[in-house]
Design brief:
The protein starts with a helix and ends with a helix. By secondary structure, it is an alpha/beta fold. It has one domain: Alpha/Beta hydrolase fold, catalytic domain (Rossmann fold), CATH 3.40.50.1820. The chain is 36% helix and 18% strand. It is globular and about 55 Å long.
Length: 358
């Protein structure tokens, strides 16, 4: 049972991370990798016969999307390959955890793609940092569009992997996109539920006030042309003392991951405040029974976000070919980069996609 005091602290932290600026000990603001990649053992140059990375751009409903395509070693466009689209977390970009898993899946023989979401990262779209479920879902459809035309890809063997917020949006995309023959998530985060009810359901009593704030922000945007920003974090000024005061692993370790160890100049927690009017009325699990393909959901057994994966898995009744795999001892953010946990997740993914994308 969570105490009222802890719920209050969690609510305050959620609001602090969702509305105001907070501060961090200075960390790297740039990456020396020529492709901008910030994860361990990332590709630094394309070597013949090895996994290669191909930065690409494509048009999606008038927005220019920036993506990285990974091809397996000894890639031959005349051969036939299964493909996997990889959706990044909220606040993340393709060069972080999405790129890590995309590269590792390419090492296992898949053609993969990781793209920056519309309005975010290196992708186009105005206003910047808009975070709408429709567009995040369309981004995943767009990755399928692009990779299905890539030389060597078998259109009948395309899978999807969504991480954190990208996991929730991938579930949403899979409800209608039957080009996806199997779907997997890692540390799935249901953005709609959390924006509506607070993390670990800690803000249920303030839904109406926050909806009004979102409506007020939209009115201001119409009147002034400027969009109010929520979620801004000044990574350069967050102190270790402030980190210690954060009661949830996801937010505490997330600030360390995004602000220090895996920082990227395009990565930001910013989102337009008026986005909340859509986010708070959306839920990744609505009509989730429309997913009728194999489903694998991976999460850390110690993650305080585990309840989001468990609930979605329970509601996914449209497929009997499903598995919830809890990585022993892992928290949410640790599934992004800790080798022992990444290796366990990859072992399950290779087994899963190997069986479902034959």
């Amino acid at each position: 049972m969570i105490s009222k005091k802890k719920l209050l602290v969690m609510a305050l932290m959620t609001m602090a991370l969702g509305v105001t600026s907070v501060g961090f000990a200075a960390g790297p603001a740039k990456t020396a990798n020529p492709y901008g990649l910030v994860y361990a053992n990332a590709i630094t140059q394309n070597v013949k016969g090895q996994v290669n990375i191909h930065p690409v751009q494509y048009n999606l409903d008038g927005r220019q999307i920036a993506a990285n395509v990974y091809t397996p070693k000894n890639y031959d466009p005349s051969h036939s390959y299964a493909a996997v689209v990889v959706a990044h977390p909220n606040g993340g970009v393709k060069e972080q955890v999405a790129g890590l898993y995309a590269q590792k899946l390419a090492e296992a023989g898949y053609i993969t793609i990781a793209a920056d979401a519309s309005f975010q990262g290196a992708s186009g779209g105005e206003p910047r940092h808009q975070d709408m479920p429709y567009f995040r879902t369309e981004d995943i459809h767009g990755m399928v569009d692009y990779i299905s035309q890539y030389p060597g890809v078998d259109k009948n063997r395309i899978g999807a992997l969504g991480i954190c917020g990208g996991g929730g949006y991938t579930l949403n995309a899979a409800k209608s996109d039957k080009r996806m023959k199997s779907v997997a998530t890692i540390s799935m985060f249901n953005t709609g539920r959390v924006r509506r009810e607070g993390y670990m359901d800690s803000q249920k009593d303030s839904v109406q006030q926050r909806l009004k704030a979102a409506n007020d922000a939209r009115r201001k945007a119409v009147e002034t042309g400027k969009h109010e920003i929520s979620g801004h974090v000044d990574f350069d000024t967050i102190t270790s003392e402030r980190l210690k005061s954060i009661p949830t692993d996801l937010y505490r370790e997330g600030l360390i991951y995004y602000g220090q160890t895996h920082r990227h100049p395009n990565s930001s927690f910013d989102y337009t405040t008026d986005s909340l009017s859509e986010l708070m009325t959306w839920d990744a699990t609505d009509q989730i029974d429309l997913i009728n393909v194999p489903l694998l959901m991976i999460a850390g057994s110690k993650a305080d976000s585990l309840y989001l994966t468990q609930y979605a898995f329970q509601k996914a009744t449209g497929t009997t070919d499903k598995e919830l795999y809890e990585i022993p001892g892992a928290t949410h953010i640790q599934t992004y980069y800790v080798p022992q946990y990444v290796n366990q997740a990859m072992a399950k993914l290779i087994q899963f996609f190997g069986r479902t994308l034959k």
